[in-house]
Give the backbone structure.
Amino acid sequence: MHDFDYRDGKLYCGDVALEDIARDVGTPFYCYSLPTLHRHIRAFEEPLAGVNHQTCFAMKANSSLAILSYMAGQGLGADVVSGGELYRALKAGIPASRVVYSGVGKTTDEIDMAIQAGIMMFNIESEQELGVINERAGELGERAPVSIRVNPDVDPMTHPYISTGMKKNKFGIDVEASMAQYLRARDMENIEIVGIDCHIGSQLTDLSPFLDAVDRLKTLVEKLASHGITLKYLDLGGGLGITYSDEEPPHPRDYCRAITDAVGPLGLKLIFEPGRVIVGNTGVMVATVLFRKETKDKTFIVVDAGMNDLIRPALYGAYHDIRPLEAVNGARETVDVVGPICESGDFLARDRELPELSRGDLIAVMSAGAYGFTMSSNYNSRTRPPEVLVDGAKYYVVLKRQSYEDLVTGEKVPAAVRNKRG
Ligand SMILES: *Cc1c(COP(=O)(O)O)cnc(C)c1O
């Protein structure tokens, strides 16, 4: 369910025509719907009413301060994977006590920052990381709360780049090896064991891998208890999929119920780390058609947004629906929608049947609210696009477009180099 629909032949977000925003801020831009965001948060939270839990939004999906601060008001916490994300979460008003810190490569500075902020817990991804966090906590005169991220070795049946819970992946600690790490952690002076964690992948469209993972974690929780290690938190990660084209992922209601049914008897506080399912369908990216380019084999629609703005098609071959801002019932044609970047992988859609588009037409790339702007870059020295948040008939530019000057901020040409130019 989202808030992007045609009205009198024009694509709207809420009560605002996307073409009006385009006229105001130019293209490309990202547009998010606040009412849709609200609905998605409630759809996840309502089935958990009465369940002892904390939802920690996976910020890497969308780290806009405006969006995070709305989430903070809704009681959400954050799952962060870097010091920068922790900084943003705190700045958006998410209390440190609702922050979990995941990721295989935490630096010493990032670890110190998180310990000093007083986060809920670190999700430990390796043996060595556990030792380093113990050391740093000792140095800072604190005790660091930790969970071990267990790799349960289940196949989430999603794209290989976004599956994380199989033995061959770099994430987490083997189910078999994690027991030893818990025993090691128990004897560490500056470590407080608080939980257990797993996250098996992203864009899952079936409940069974989640339930398989939960089963393996449950067995481990019981084994830990028999060693006198009791936990507070059971962190189930994120990964619930959304509809990009014809996927039929479980409704959050069914996901939440299936999980609470499976783990209820353990009596632990449940931590969820949803990302995509909250924000994916709250956003679109709008672009302008620059040129039509017809070759013997193909018709290319060249637009002013590229893989630097939205990399998912290039990176994962991901499908995003594309809709013209102006509905047309005329001829359709099969085209490649491509960006201006000097890479053959720079496409938004391939062999896609779309209404005939001409120079100057506007398109919306749908379902771009997750892993869209957060993955954007300055490649080809392109400025990063603005982000706009729509609430009913009002819209707010929550991030302005970068300027060319922004592109070179922080750069220096040393005098010695300048003098060598000859
Ligand atoms: C990416 C990630 C998530 C969120 O995944 P979604 O598929 O967006 O729900 C949650 N937890 C961890 C540790 C992650 O890396």
